[in-house]
Amino acid sequence: MAVTFEQRRIAGDTGSPAQVLDQAIQAHRNGALDAAEHGYQTLLATQPQHPDALHFLGVLCHQRGRSDEATALIERALALAPEYPDAHNNLGNVHKECGRLAQAEACYRRALACGPSHHHALANLAIVLEAQARPGEAFIAYAQLLQQAPGFAHGHYLLGLFLRNHAQSHEHLEQSAECFGHAWQLDNGNLRALEAQGTALYLLGRHEQAREVYRAWLSRSPDNAVARHMLAACGGGEPPPRADDAYVREVFDGFAESFDEQLLRNLDYRAPELLVAGLAARLGRPHAALDVLDAGCGTGLCAPLLRPHARHLAGVDLSGGMIEKAQQRGGYDELVVGELTAHLHAQPAAWDVVISADTLVYFGDLHEVAAAAHGALRRGGWLAFTVEVLDDESDRWELGASGRYRHGRAHVHAALMQAGFGAVDIAPVILRNEGGLPVQGWLVLALK
Question: Does Transcription regulation appear among the keywords (predicted)?
């Protein structure tokens, strides 16, 4: 690997160890990961027992998908500096994002023992308690967090999500809307909080208030794709035939860090398992012989389920943040940041399977993407996807208050038949829970 100017500067002969570390950290913050890694390694070459360099290099390794190396590096840092709360917290983050929730919990508790006011560790502890189906303990942790750090905007947002995910009454939804409002007031850069507030108001039946949230947002930021899309979703404009690329990219780049824990552990998300089980009944015993495209791969939840069937497993997603998480999870031979329909059009007869778990919920009219998928499949290939149910017998779709589209069975069937698919199977399923209620979906399998 060629050494860049920034790497040469970090490794300069005149820099003290503190300067080398500061420059590496700054490069890390700026996203210059090659330069940052070079800097940390330069410092460790002369001071192999430097806790900060070991810790930050561990964080960087996890970002690059080398989570086992990250764990070993941060554990070395903690062996040298056992009262290092940030390192305990970040080791917990590695475990959490690798699905080792009990180990993550232990790390966050050690971070809090070393630094009782470490509100990031307390927020993370609340998240993993919730993820382990211990909502009572999680609620206590969230309450402690906001008592300890009432100005922590992200804490209000997390409590809003908790109340929405576990709502057992109208009052809980009201409280979640208030939390999202507080989060936005404290940090008007937290667009997810504003979007969540508008959605909560709409679900509470306060439709005009929801529209006012998005209109006020658009008055400050007229070109904001999220505000424009969500205003249409709440009945304040003509719904587009599909979600704007900028909307999808902005929402999911911001959602990448917490995507898995929210869907899998808090919403009981099951679309990947349902889709792969449906495919397996048609594909037969896995022989690692198929070329498979995970279309809208997100953080890569489908990868471990698809891998036994695939000789080549590729993923494409519009969100660079999601692709980074998929790289960390591993399992793919190829990952691409790109728009789904264009990606399919560019690869004629390239795939044996195209699978799309809850991605086409951001498409209204399915005709174009169905035709693109048909063209990208080989003869005998399968398209498998999920969408949310619109309980309507006619050939219709509509944009819901969540910002996702719902589809009538007739529309799904018509789009696939017009695209040229032969056998089409559309079955009702429960995709996840939301606001304490099941989300009804269609599981669709279509043969070319």
Answer: no
